Amino acid sequence: MPLLSRRLFMGSSKHLFSPKCPLPQASLINPRRLLHFTCQRRLFPNPLTGFFLRPPATAHVFRSVKPVMLSRQVHLAQVEDEVVQDSLALVRLKLEEEGIPSAGMKLDEFTRILCPQCEGGDSKEKSLSVLIRESGAVWSCFRAKCGWKGHINMHGEGKHYRSNNLVSKVKKYRVLSEQALGLKPLCNELLTYFSERMISGETLRRNAVLQHINYDQIVIAFTYRRDGKLINCKYRDITKKMWQEKDTEKIFYGVDDIKDASDIIIVEGEIDKLSMEEAGFRNCVSVPCGAPSVVSEKALPSEEEDTSYQYLWSSKKYLEKASRIILATDADAPGQALAEELARRLGRERCWRVTWPMKNENDVCKDANEVLMYFGPEALKNVIENAELYPIRGLFNFSDYFHEIDAYYRCHGYELGVSTGWEALNNLYRVAPGELTIITGVPNSGKSEWIDAMMCNINEREGWKFVLCSMENKVQEHARKLLEKHIKKPFFKARYAETVERMSELELEEGKQWLYETFHLIRCENDSLPSINWVLELAKAAVLRHGVRGLVIDPYNELDHQRPPNQTETEYVSQILTRIKRFAQHHSCHVWFVAHPRQLQQWSGGPPNMYDISGSAHFINKCDNGIVVHRNRDPKLGPLDRVQICVRKVRNKVIGCIGEAYLSYDRATGEFKDIEDQHAT
């Protein structure tokens, strides 16, 4: 065998190769790699071509051989590829036998499919994860009620594999009996205990309340039954320590009493359930496990994962029939947290809640049994009959706002708005908290100056504080304008001051203190532009930290408008104005928003319209108030210091109406003053 002696020698079969059958030519294989051939009527050397073909049924086959590696490389890659493909085919066949469809699954990639054992539950979730490899496959169902797992390992010819299936995680519960638990009828001591809590012997007998001996101590045994069968038992000793039987199903206490009930009452303890029966309500159940300390912030889990509230889901068929569910949990914080958790699962729209009465001047009754003990069964009956709808976030009744309506009627706040400081505007426009005012006007009309003057007037009269987001003003220039209006003197001795005396250093120091106490600034510390969300977040901080009552955003076109490509400018403007209005209403803060008009064609010199604002008609459609500030530029039409304030929209008739007023502008001090004869203008 000269050919084989130069390449490799393989033992264990004299039928493997012959000198007339050279090794197949393919890509090189590292000689140190252990070759493992598997042939089951599949691979057979063809003496003509040198490739391996399927042999006839009578052909000699071999099982497994391990080569004695020499120094030369061997060309056997094609043989190995075909072996791998046949192994994968066998793995897929075995998966099909397990009921797992493998079509479309890729090698070494996880695939999620419908579990053949649980079929995805009610949600039909693709919960079975399958991984196929050359050596076999593994799978696992991630549904808590299923948990089916298994794997396939290929050996030798593939005739042998093992499958380790863990089918279904159905928990097995203990079967209980009164005899096995040693339960006995209540003794006179316990009957007296319940009598002191206003629970009668008849109610105790109907609910099968028994006793149990625990380490020579008599304890109360509350028997949990379903269809009359004992499912669980909960014990209570004289120190109010409570425990339950292990490995038992958690169900409602008294679940048989709500099978056909249209109204269901849920309480937090077994004695509260018995108290409800004393008041005439048998359609009552108690939770088995007490209350959580706080409401969970996590999303509501699925029915299978909601292990703490399985007693709800096990009674689903009864609860679904009920049109009204009254939550009569304890008055403390855990009791209210339990009510919220129950309402989340049952649906707030059909839940009601009770209001426990005061048992003295300072304390409220904690639960149903305290009401029964302090005020009797009739009072407890009234509590249930006067239950209120469980609140749903975002859904209210006018009664929820009666206190605000009363305050509005009595004008305890700024319901009628505050004066701008100019008599000419008092009947047209007053400033009310929680509203949005859009200010517009052609460039150099005095929009920002007029807002500054109005803020100075409101601060002087009402003591309001303001937060300013004025991107067009340098800080020192804005401070100069505000100080001139407040001190009523020019900041500099310059040409614009004419003969008016400049403010002194003492007046400057007093003015700086006024600036410190009255205004807060929103400024970008780098070259980026502020977004509306960023501005509103800082304004919110100013409201909460400093108690500001007014926000100025000046102007709209200086904001960073990150508009999505699929959103029109009209939609974008509507969105940001909605955000600003919600901020104003939620924080009772008035917002002045300056927006420039678009370039006016064939402008005649008159004031622009609110619909001329660049961007969208939503500026006037969505605002509460719309004002145009316009300065006269033609000496033929009147004094050049005359400023026209055009009130173009007022949503709330209580604070103003549409109209126009005229003010004069003092260039030296930046003040706006009333003109005595408005008609003369």
Automatic annotation (TrEMBL):
InterPro entries: DNA_helicase_DnaB-like_C, P-loop_NTPase, TOPRIM_dom, Twinkle-like. One of its GO terms (biological process) is DNA replication. Gene3D superfamilies: 3.40.1360.10, P-loop containing nucleotide triphosphate hydrolases. Residues 411-679 form the SF4 helicase domain. Pfam families: DnaB_C, Toprim_4. One of its GO terms (molecular function) is 5'-3' DNA helicase activity. This is SF4 helicase domain-containing protein.
